[in-house]
Amino acid sequence: MNDTQYQPPRVWTWDAENGGEWAGINRPTSGAQFDRDLPVGKHPFQLYSLATPNGQKVTIMLEELLAAGESGAEYDAWLISIGDSDQFSSGFVAVNPNSKIPAMVDRSGDQPVRVFESGHILLYLAEKFGRFLPREHAARTEAMNWLFWLQGAAPYLGGGFGHFYAYAPYPMQYPIDRFTMETKRQMHLLDSALSERRFIGGEEYTIADMAIWPWYGNLVFGNQYDAGEFLNVSEYKHLRRWADEIAERPAVQRGRIVNRRNGEPWEQMDERHDASDFDKLPKKS
């Protein structure tokens, strides 16, 4: 039966063999699938993550805080291999019952505090350290507008366009057309906003930039889903200008490679437990 002949059943049932790159780890239930504790390091913040765009948001923020002189933001970053179902361990589910990376535990106080959802982790850290979120009401509100925009928009890019363009078991025109249209609308929106301001929220670099750059910076570079030509990313010149500027920040260059297992050898760091770990990487050729 082809897609044009499909009729939804009265009651949906799960088919674990429905194909697609991530079909083996997805299921319609939540909760732990096996028992395993999470490791705990020496630093105030324990991060359990992978260098997907959502994971990069948080490691960029932590590296930016350290670069700004906030020594209390030291962290251990432990690799969660989602392809190996690490996110379904009892330890990870105790930190994030939604079984999605990244998840963090703040151990700087009397009692550990769990923090999950990448946008919330950024906001939590910004408020805890008083950094990268404007104090003035209107500027803060504008940064928050874009932070929440990203949290709602990125699923259309990743779970929509990215899934059907790069990961689905076979090409399907309708969903690819639908989500390509939305992805290009989002890029046009960002490009238009950045034609009038230096950063996403205004003239100040904020957590909104840190949230949006791993998704749409990589997209406009042509790196995300190998879709640069398909999306004609060269037409978004203001978005590219902004993405280039963010990419030049040393903290971003460090944060983007933490918990990363793909790319060149010099940009792969399974785990990060000390600033000196970056010095142990192979030199960029």
TrEMBL record:
InterPro entries: Glutathione-S-Trfase_C-like (IPR010987), Glutathione-S-Trfase_C_sf (IPR036282), Glutathione_S-Trfase (IPR040079), Glutathione_S-Trfase_N (IPR004045), Thioredoxin-like_sf (IPR036249). Residues 259-285 are annotated as: Disordered. Residues 46-133 form the GST N-terminal domain. It holds the Pfam family GST_C_2. It comes from the Bacteria. Residues 139-266 form the GST C-terminal domain. PROSITE patterns: GST_CTER, GST_NTER. Residues 261-285 have a biased composition (Basic and acidic residues). This is Glutathione-dependent disulfide-bond oxidoreductase. It comes from Paracoccus alkanivorans.
